[in-house]
Amino acid sequence: MIISRTPYRISFFGGGTDYPSWYLKNGGAVISTTIDKYIYISCRLLPSFFKHKYRIVWSHIENVNKINQIKHHSVREMLKLYNIKDGLEIHYDGDLPARSGMGSSSVFTVGLMNILNNIKNNNIKKKELAKNCINFEQKILKETVGSQDQIAASYGGFNKITFEPGGKFKVSVISIDNNKIKKLNNNLLLVYTGLKRTAHKIASDYVSKLQTSKKLNILKISNFVYEAEQILKSNTLDNFGELLHESWVEKKCLSSVISNSSINNIYNDAIKNGALGGKLLGAGGGGFFLFYVPLYKQRNFKKKLKKLITVPFKFTSEGSKIMYKNFKEDN
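RESULT FIELD:
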């Protein structure tokens, strides 16, 4: 059996500039961090006495004999890509719900690809893993997704990811002292809206417009990355929360499907009860809000928004990791 553990990410600023339709021509940058919430994937060789050859356990349970019969799109296409001949049993478990803005589809892709490379005894580096996952989602699955989530999940850490015109990327650790990073972490709350959506469907509504009618919006979103860097170097962390608010206002201008009345009501209640700013994570449409709420205001904030689930989290520095490997037939 092989078990991978791959972290979810929080994207603070620059989301949208990581779509190839934008950065291949203009370049882009994002600031993000991985957190101590994970997707776990276990994989074992399936003993030959079972009637089925592949067993895939996710929100469904699939027992099939041919790869083409697998309904889970990512699993099916990746097993084909890696030319898997042996029977396998694959289990997926996540600490957070899918389709919630936490990059879960890309986190899953990174975790599964990490496992399959280990099955093939490929000593894959973080950068190669990220590049291969980006190519898999964008070229093979043909999904409208950005390129930051695969990199964040592969590398781990609190980073600035820079995209160069032409496609190359660079990951730079954001160096701020431990007390400041701890204070920032303590002032952030992850709040679940209860609304699920499919990211690439939301993104499809506005990605094609980034070079034309939405160009000014995406340029402003890009500039927030550099403003955030300056804030993190200063002693005015509350400005980070206010910048999140500016970023959210600009993001909503990209498409009418990014927000709705329910989401707007949650955001307005949060601001009224102590949040300095926040943003809906991922492409929009639902999932998790990230709010910047000064620590001394959080008790009242949670009381007033008690109908919503607040998830505690810590920043982490590790990317996708193989937690256990003993790959042989388990009888």
